[in-house]
Design a protein that fits this description.
The structure holds two protein chains of two kinds. By secondary structure, chain A is mainly α. Chain A has two domains: 191 residues, no CATH class; 293 residues, no CATH class. Helix content of chain A is 68%, strand content 0%. Chain B is α/β, with parallel strands linked by helices. Chain B folds into two domains: 29 residues; 227 residues, SGNH hydrolase (Rossmann fold). Chain B has a five-stranded parallel β-sheet with strand order 2-1-3-4-5. In chain B, helix 2 packs across helix 6, helix 5 runs parallel beside helix 10 and helix 10 packs parallel to helix 12. Chains A and B meet through helix 9, helix 17 and helix 19 of A and helix 1, helix 2, helix 8 and helix 9 of B.
Amino acid sequence: MLFTRLEFLWLFLATFAAYYVPGLRRLQVGILLVASLIFYGWHSPQLLGLLGVSILLNAITSFLASRTGSHARLAWAATGVVANLLILAFFKYGALLTQLAVNVLHLPHEGLVATLIQLPLPIGISFYTFEGISLLVDVVKGRVRQLDHEPGQKGAFPRHLVNTSLFIAFFPHLIAGPILKASHFYPQIGGKSFAHIRWNVVARSLLTGYFLKMVIADNLKDYTFWLTYPYCLNLGTTTGLVLLFGYSMQIFADFAGYSLIAIGLAAMLGYELPQNFNFPYIADSLSDFWRRWHISLSTWLRDYLYFPLGGNRRGPLLTCVNLLLVMALGGLWHGAAWSYMVWGCYHGFGLVVERLVTQSLSPRLPSTLTWPPAVIAILRGLRILAVFAFVCLGWLLFKLTDIRHVSEFIEMLFKKTRSGAVIEQVTAVACYSVPVLVYHAMRLPAVEGMVRSQRAAGARWPDRMETLVLGSMMAALILNSGTSNAFIYFQF
Amino acid sequence: MHSSTSSFSLARLRHAVVACLALLASYQVLIWCHAVSASPSIHQWEDNVIRAERYADTPAGDQPVVLIGSSLMARLYPGQVGARVQNIAFSGGSPLTGAELVLRHPAAAAIIVEMSNLTSRPMDAELVEPATGGISFLRRWLSVFRREYQPVSVLVSAWKDHVLSERARQNALEDARKHKKKPKKPKPSSSPKVRSPAVDGVLAAYNNPLTAEKLQSIRKGAEELRQKLQALRQNSKVRVFMNHLPLDPAVDATTGTAQTLDLLHLVFPSPEWEWIPPPPATDWQTLDGLHLTDVSAETYAHYLRDTLQARGVKLD
């Protein structure tokens, strides 16, 4: 079910109404679970089976891991992690690996092979398997205090099963994140009161989220469609670059929009989800970008993969290897296509180069403390532009998932420099990109500092401006929403 | 988004709602005062939505002749067929969508159904529902809700017109300055690099005999279409014409095309169903093997006009 569809509105309103009925407080978790199952199984009820298996698997292994000594604890957790990875590998990468085997071993494209290649991808599987792994690791590390019951306490497992079901299936984050950590979510499970709803978070998150998704991303998709192969070869340099820029805006608006809607909906139900985006397009380095983009995934990869591999503690060479490995796997997490892995390697390579350059240049440059502020601001601006250009180019691998098509597109960019721009595409992309750019610009230190000092001086215009912006976003949602479309990150 | 440290109250939300309503009202007033012109659509999907909305808002007494089908039929300019003709063929869509629209809003006097691209695409509820259901009636009173008045589309169309007229003016000045007016060679609609893989792709798909599964899905779509058209003929006395638009000659000669047409003639047999006869053989030019170029589309529109008039359909 999509957050942007009417059926979701009815489901949410019904859930919300039942959730806060005074006499039903003890049933709140159950109400959320029922709503989550309806939400997930709406179009494909058969998917509930796999979700159920994942919940049971993680509930049982994490419960057993929490009850046993250190060796058995590790064994149960490892069993759970391996089972999660096998489920993910089978459903997400089964087709890719089978296709590889077909190509290499020249297997016939029939029977089991054909079935494996056509295996449908269960929606949200990458998200909920990673959450299951997070639960198991957090249990081993003793971070989930809710499991520290007396041994043999009656009702401990059923309660844990219910909590795990909510942790994994909670509908606001179920199919496209943010990826939750057990240590962050479990302490929140419990009775909620209508009076404690943080309406400021709800209003800002929902309005901004729906605006980004329905007005920006859903409209931009109609233009960035022309980046698909072979149509992209008919574009000139200017139009091609503008559409690529537009795709960068679209993918941000789509995913950040989804995350904000998820945060707003969860806040209405009394839960706090982590921020997933922190104005990524004003990052002034690649490492900064990854601290701002899809934060829940990058922190997951950092905590559960990069650090266990040794992080940056095992010398410069292994640090670079770790970075490349983590980014390549992070890329592959996005989809069962080699282009995603190439995209991960592209970012990994960028991070390695950035690290090497920074380490070799830093000692030789004079301290920036002595530089004029204008020079520092200009240099930061240039760095932001360079990072943005690097990231934009990388998105090509998301849009054109065949590497040959990417190289043909880049070749076209160099060859068709004299082709005139397609006015309507360039103008429309510019119109829809402005709000995203303004949204980021508001977070630049200079702008933020100015607004803060104005507020401190008692000026009322920042608040009035915010009210007008919220009103304009509502009007834009009514007047200028695009066609409802699945969120890009659903496919991952 | 990070929550700001400023206070946020429900009163501010109320003010935001008031600001929103004021913006909507102001925009509607601008439309009523003709300060804003409708956008002719700036991309394919928008074009589909505008076509659907315009048809759904046609008064029942107008009795238009409608063209239904996919992007193949969508390339025909209705004015070239006749003044009373409306084109509700949808790019990326199927004749089922157009037929459903006419079923829900039976204003049409005759329907010309495209049979060249009857794929397994289902009826597109995303087009039909918003155009005819829910609060679509509001569109008739408040044009602010019409797709053709979406602010960004209006802005982009206005800017495009401005740039194009400016370019035309510059060119005219340039020509006048040079005292020579060379007739310009028309720009090809599609580069050979794009056309070639596209035609190859179509040929690869149609050169081999269609699989039983594919034929079955086409048959299923055709049966569904027949039911809708049958209902229209019975309920609204609409005349229905089946029409095979010309494709690239190489594609038209493929086994797949012949198989599809044979199947469609079985489902819609003559003379129970009126078929528009194939146009005289000529070298039909297409963009990609399937879609007629502007010039060929105009030639075919004229052919269609003559054929329909000969059969007593009032087009003007």
